[in-house]
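Co-fold these.
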Amino acid sequence: MHTPVQIDSPLDAASRAELESRYADLCSQGLKINMTRGVPSPEQLALAKRFLSLPGESDFVSRDGVDWRNYGGLQGMPEVRELFSEALLGLPADYVAVGENSSLALMYEALSHAFRRGVPGSDQPWSEEAVVKFICPVPGYDRHFSICDEFRIEMLPVPMLDSGPDMDIVEALVAGDPSIKGMWCVPKYSNPCGTTYTDVTVERLAAMAAAAPDFRLFWDNAYAVHHLSDEATPNQDITGRCAAAGHPNRAFVFASTSKIVLPGAGLAFFGSSPENLAWWLERRKHRTIGPDKVNQLRHLLFFGDADGLTQHMRAHSTLLAPKFACVDRAFAQAFGDTGSARWTRPAGGYFISLDITPGCAKRTVELAKQAGIALTPAGATHPGGRDPHDANIRISPSYVDLDTLAKASHGTALCAQLAAAEIR
Amino acid sequence: MHTPVQIDSPLDAASRAELESRYADLCSQGLKINMTRGVPSPEQLALAKRFLSLPGESDFVSRDGVDWRNYGGLQGMPEVRELFSEALLGLPADYVAVGENSSLALMYEALSHAFRRGVPGSDQPWSEEAVVKFICPVPGYDRHFSICDEFRIEMLPVPMLDSGPDMDIVEALVAGDPSIKGMWCVPKYSNPCGTTYTDVTVERLAAMAAAAPDFRLFWDNAYAVHHLSDEATPNQDITGRCAAAGHPNRAFVFASTSKIVLPGAGLAFFGSSPENLAWWLERRKHRTIGPDKVNQLRHLLFFGDADGLTQHMRAHSTLLAPKFACVDRAFAQAFGDTGSARWTRPAGGYFISLDITPGCAKRTVELAKQAGIALTPAGATHPGGRDPHDANIRISPSYVDLDTLAKASHGTALCAQLAAAEIR
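Predicted complex below.
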C-alpha cells in the first residue's frame, strides 16, 4: 500500500499542455490555503466551549486527599486516570501517570531519562552507548524524527505495510543489533497512513527477540479515540502482550487529550508496566512537584465519564468524516484508476497518505505552494526529511472547510499530475 | 547571620527538668500540624476563585495571530509575556519565554539541554565533562539539590551572609575551577533565609571571572513579587549587570505564578539574553509544539495589568505577614536574647531560617515530630541533606492558621531548648 507508485501516468504530451493550462487557472484563483499540519478546525474547537469555564466553583475533593488547588499529586488524580487510562492507553489507572499538556514532551522526557540514567534493564545510561538507533516506520511522524535528531539517535526507516511496519525487517534488525534501543510506533490510525497495526503485528512486536536488553517501543497512541465513524477500532493491548511474551517492560505508552479538548490545553499521559511506572515517577520527582491538577479536574467535570468522552469524540467524527470523504472523492475523480497515485482511506486519525509518481513529491508541493496551497513539505514523513522515492505527501484535511478542502484536493492532484508530466 | 549559633544556651540543669515537663505537656495536646513545605493556605487559594472560571467565553485575539485555542506559540503570547516579564524576571518581554506549570521543571530542562547539547559558549555538552560542579548557597532550597543529585552534579556549599552568598568564597571557587558550570541563586527573599542579594553581591556575581567559559547563574526568582509589606523590594537587574560586565549570557532567569494564583496551575517562565533565549527555543522546539495558551489567557484575564498583579499580591501579603510576625513573636518570647537561637525576619518569601545550638537540629525536628509538629527535615537546607553543624531548621509559616502556628512555633522553640539541654 505504501510502496511507491509503480505505473507511470498514462497521460500523453498533449495532456501536458492541458495540465499547464489548468494549473494557470488554479494559480489565477488567488488561493491561500494552509494544510501543513493536522490541527482541529474552529468548529471542532467550539465543541470545547464549556471546558473554558471549568472547574468554576467546584467543591470536588479527590479521594487521594491531595488538594487539587495546591501542590502535589505527582502521578495525577486517580479519578482522572480512571477516566482516561483504558480509553487512551488501554491500561488500568494504576499503571498510568498524568503529565503536562504535551505527549510529545513526555516522549522526549522518557528519552531524556533513558539517556541520563538508563531504563529498567539498561546496563548503562544510553548517553554512554557509542550509538543509539531507533526504528522509524515510514511514512511516519516528523516530530518523532525531530526528537531523534536532537538526541543524535540514528534512524532506521522501515516501510509501513497495510498491517503496520514490515515486521520481517523489524525483527531482523532488532534481533541483530544491540544498539537499536527503541522504535517509534503510532499503532492506531497512524500518522500519516491511518494504518492500525494488526493483531499479528502487535503480537510480533511484543514477542520478538531484541539484542538490546533495554529495547523499548515508544507507543504513541495519539489517535486512540479519534475514529471517523461509529465503528471504534479498539486499543491494542501492547503492555499485556509484552508481559505475556516475557517482555513486561518493553512498551512505553503515550497519549493526550490535545485533539480531544483543545490543542495545548489538554492532558498528556504516560503508561507502562509497574516497574517502568515506578522508574518514571522516580525520575520525574526531581523535575516537578506535580502536573496541573486544576486542568485535571477541568477534564473530569467536562467529560464526567467514559460515555461523555465517547459522545464528545462522536461530535469530532461528525465534523471530520466528511472532510476525509471529500479528499477521497477529489483524488478518485482526478487520478481515477490510472495507477498514477495511491492514497489511504483511514478509519480514524488526522491524515491521508498520498503516494504519487516517484520523483514528483517535492515538485508537487512546490507547484501547490505557487498556487497558494501550503502542504506538509515533501519528505517530512521520512527521517531527515529525505523520502528516497520522493513520492509521499501527507494530506491534512482537518482544519479547512469543505469547499476549501475540495479546491485544495483537486489542486493538489492537478499539481501531482503536472509534476509527473514534466518529468516524462 | 546564618553562621551557626556560637553561644550555648545559659540554661542550667534545673531547667532541663522544667523543659521536659513542658515537653510532656506539649505531647499531651495531641497536635497534628504539618509545616514541612512552603504552601499557600486555603485563604490564599481562595484569592484565585475567579481564576477557576476563566477564560470563559472570551473572544480574545492575540496580536501574534496564534489562536489561543489551537496549536502553536512556542514562546508564549506576547501580551502575557508583557504582563509578567518585568515583574517576575526583571526583563523585557522579548527576552522571556512562557513554559508549562513549573519553574523547577524549566530549571531541570535547562540543565537537561546543557548536558545534552551544551549552552552558548560551551566547548562540548556538559555530559562529556569529567565532572560538573554547582555552587550551592546554604542554607538553600532542597529541590535544587535534588536536581543536582539526579544529574550527578557535585555540589559546593557556600555560606549565606546577610548580603547573599559569601562572595569571597564564590569568586575564588568560580575563578579557579573550570568544572564549576553553574550556581543556584534565589536572589530575592531567598529560600529559606529570606535574604535579598545586595547590589554589591549582584554586581560581583555578574562581573566575577569564571574559569568555565559557559558558567551559568541559575537565577530562581521564585519570590519576585512575594513581599510581606507594601514596601516592595525591586528585582535585581542581573541580566543587565551581566551584559554590562561582558558576560551577556551568564544568567538563566526563572520564575512562576505558582504562589501567585494556584500551585501547579500557574505559568512558569524562562528569561535571559537574546542568544540564550534563541538557544532555549531552538532546543525546546524538539520537545513540544507549545505550552498551554488557554492558561496564559486565563492569567491575562485574571490580572488584567501590572496593577492587578500588585493588588493581588497585596492580598497575599495581608494574609502572610501576620504569620511571619507570629513566628517571630513566639521565637522572641521563647529564646529571648539568650543567644541560643537566631532566626531571620524576611521582608518577603515563604520561609524563616532558624539556627539553633549546633548538633541539635535533627533532635529538635524529631522531638517536634513526636509532639505532632511535622517540620522540614533537618539538613534539607543543605546538599545531600547534611548540615555539617546540624543547626539549621526551615520554618514554613504560610499554610497553617495563626492559632496553630503560634502553638507550632512555641512548640518548636521548646523542642530546640530541650534538645540543647539534652547534650549539655
